[in-house]
Amino acid sequence: MEGLEGALSDGLLKARHIPSLRELRDAIISLGGAFMACETGMKMAGLSSDDLMEGIRVRGMVSFLTEIGSHPIMTL
């Protein structure tokens, strides 16, 4: 499997009464959250920034740790 192959579709999520990834992203942003994607992980998965939803920043480890500081982190 490469990239987002096999990810749940919004239609399947809706059929199961689960918010779409876009709806979840919008809710987190409205609460002041931010999204960052791991540059190395993306390369390993064959993804580019064009494959990501709008508003997700690509960061290397040093940039990620600098930006995050002492704020809480949730990883997916």
Descriptive key words:
76 residues; two-stranded parallel ribbon; DsrE2-like; DsrEFH-like
Helix/strand structural class: alpha+beta
Summarize the biggest pleated sheet.
2 strands, parallel
Radius of gyration: 14 Å
User: What's the helix count?
Assistant: 4
Pfam families: DrsE_2
InterPro entries: DsrE2-like, DsrEFH-like
Please write out the topology.
Layout: H1 10-15, H2 21-30, E1 35-38, H3 39-45, E2 56-59, H4 61-68
Parallel strand pairs: 1-2
Structure report:
The structure is a single chain. With 76 residues, the chain is an alpha+beta fold. It has one domain. The chain contains four helices and two strands, in the order ααβαβα. Strands 1-2 form a two-stranded parallel sheet. It is globular and about 40 Å long. The relative contact order is 0.15. The model has no long low-confidence stretch (mean pLDDT 83). Pfam families: DrsE_2.
Quick take:
The chain has four helices and two strands. With 76 residues, the chain is of the alpha+beta class.
